[in-house]
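BUG: 3D viewer hangs when loading the predicted structure for this chain

Environment: internal workstation, default settings.
Expected: structure renders.
Actual: progress bar stalls at 90%.

Input used:
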Amino acid sequence: MVKDTKWIQSVLPHRYPFLMVDRVTEISTEEAVGIKNVTINEPYFQGHFPDEPIVPGVLILEALAQLGGILISFIKGEEKEQRGYFAGIDNARFRRPVRPGDQIVLKVSVLKHRGDIFKVKGVATVDGEVAAEGELMIALRKPL
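Structure tokens produced before the viewer hung:
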């Protein structure tokens, strides 16, 4: 079940330049897989770093958190009165740099949840190698 950008924008409030998920390629009540295509046109490359562009690790984690929000919305039936907010991270690790031209495969799976608090495991890979990973906490709340 492939979900395109239009569907993603119906679920997430993020927009350019902060929408970090280009496509959802798989989604179930247990896990989701998505893609972020990295191009040289990304605005953060102007300063990170001009002579050696590398995707900031925190933005890879943000992409995983966004996919986690998509997964939770899917699980909860896309309830519009609540939105997923990035609430915490544990065990974050950065394993390899991500550069223009790379395609990041994002995968999140539910570790546990209690009420409206979810903990998901997120792994971002490029060419089969882990680029970043962490355990993300996402809280469902009414929009501010």
